[in-house]
Amino acid sequence: MNGGLLVAGTTSDAGKSVVTAGICRWLVRRGVKVAPFKAQNMSLNSFVTREGAEIGRAQAMQAQACRIEPTAQMNPVLLKPGGEQSSQVVLLGKPVGEMSARGYHGGRQQRLLGTVLDCLAELRGTYDAVICEGAGSPAEINLRRTDIVNMGIARGARLPVLVVGDIDRGGVFASFFGTVALLAPEDQELVAGFLVNKFRGDVSLLEPGLDMLHGLTGRRTYGVLPFRHGLGIDEEDGLRVSLRGTVRESTVSPPVGEDVLRVAVCAVPLMSNFTDVDALAAEPGVVVRFVDRPEELADADLVIVPGTRGTVRALAWLRERGLADALVRRAAEGRPVLGICGGFQILGEHIEDEVESRAGAVDGLGVLPVRVRFAREKTLTRPAGQALGEPVEGYEIHHGVADVRGGEPFLDGCRVGHTWGTHWHGSLESDGFRRAFLREVAAAAGRRFVPAPDTSFAALREEQLDRLGDLIEQHADTDALWRLIESGAPQGLPFIPPGAPA
């Protein structure tokens, strides 16, 4: 078998990432050697491979669904937004510079098509099947000429295309039809059919619409996936972190001890790797919420200042909103604060940045004895060590170089009292360390909170991935999906001129 499939979507956030992961997990459970692929990803939520390459965290999650190690070939182009109109371009895991959206789409993107196709060919030569994820919508006709992630890669590699639609948003039939109708004939012939995502209710009520859609497009629907809570794992877009909402106390598993533990995460601009707090949210009795007002810190037992692609910008935002003063007071009172990556830098005394913001010398909040200088070369590592008497693993993605001038050592950063700072992302996924850290936080906060002794974050992630595989296996036509991956799009699919139904 040398199969492939492109999972496209009618919109951003239609469910492409989780559907791709679900198909990967379904295939690997059938004994298929499978790998994920996304030619180009725009995300602030990234990961570091064992070889020191930076890729989208969604592709790392999909590799886990395949039970393989992620590599740079699985996400050859990563765009990390640094503002409204510019992004850092990461090519094969290494940053190659900043570029405006106009400059990128004006020529650079199309020149990367050869590199992207080479990576896909290398994966297809190694694995039985490669499940590719598109980006946004393939019907973004203003960008089709330079597209390398949707129909550009599908046509270049002759991949069949499955279009996913989020019915929970409404208008899914119009979205399916319009997506196909806006494509050129050469692109349409690769669109095999549709997959409905996030359906609530009685499927029999949907079936007449699916039959009509088939009559209008000549394309079948490969499955209707029901709505399931808690499957948005490793989402791509940190800029939309507010859409994750606030975790209500009523939705949290009951605590092991007498109290819950409340964690407030400052929702800084250009937040990166907000998945750092997922392991905390997985703990019974821990309530995690994202906040943007100083009064929301008042009842928090732990405040986290997370990573950000714009450290100086985030620092200014904290000051403008009064959160900076609240953090300084909190640290002085000995109430727990944790800074991760950019958040660690913000808690320091001084920042010298001629790289990211080009702001030069900027005073930090001064609660940790650290001075930070931004280097042009990005640090991309997978460190391991010990803290609080427990083994810890993590990963680092940063330009800032920290000069720690005091305090107690803490994960290559430092702590002063109950304020901690580190560049290590993912450290809270280490179960023993997370429990030890939460015990310290609870003691400092005066809470009778006890971490669950047997919570395994890795096992919970595996359970989530199996749930995705179950969704595909139980609610998709897997026989038809298998034929599609193995043999490509059916021949003779009709062309739909735009506006045909009228």
Which structural traits does this protein have?
seven-stranded mixed β-sheet; alpha/beta; 15 helices; 32% helix; Rossmann fold; 502 residues; globular; six-stranded parallel β-sheet
Question: What is the strand and helix layout of this fold?
Answer:
Layout lengths: L2 E7 L6 H14 L4 E4 L2 E3 L3 E3 L5 E3 H10 L10 E5 L4 E6 L2 E7 H11 L1 H14 L2 E5 L17 H7 L3 E6 L5 H10 L3 H4 L2 E9 L3 H15 L2 E7 L34 E6 L4 E2 L5 H4 L4 E6 L10 E4 L1 E2 L2 H10 L2 H10 L4 E4 L1 H6 L2 E4 L6 E4 L6 E12 L2 E4 L2 E4 L2 E9 L3 E3 L2 E4 L2 E4 L8 H15 L11 H19 L2 H10 L15
Parallel strand pairs: 1-9, 1-10, 2-9, 3-6, 10-11, 11-12, 13-15, 13-16, 16-18, 18-27, 19-21
Antiparallel strand pairs: 4-5, 6-7, 7-8, 14-17, 19-20, 21-24, 22-23, 25-26, 26-27
Helix pairs in contact: 1-2, 1-14, 4-5, 6-8
Keywords: Cobalamin biosynthesis, Glutamine amidotransferase
GO biological process, one term: cobalamin biosynthetic process
Family: Belongs to the CobB/CobQ family. CobQ subfamily.
Radius of gyration: 23 Å
Looking at the chains present, what oligomeric state does this protein adopt? single chain
Please report the first level of CATH classification, the CATH class of the largest domain: Alpha Beta
Average pLDDT reading: 92
The CATH superfamily of the largest domain is P-loop containing nucleotide triphosphate hydrolases
Distance separating the two termini: 42 Å
Number of separate strands: 27
**Fraction of residues in helices?**
25-40%
Structural class: alpha/beta
How many helices? The count is 15
Name the poorly predicted regions.
238-250
The overall number of domains is 2
Shape category: globular
- Summarize the biggest pleated sheet: 7 strands, mixed
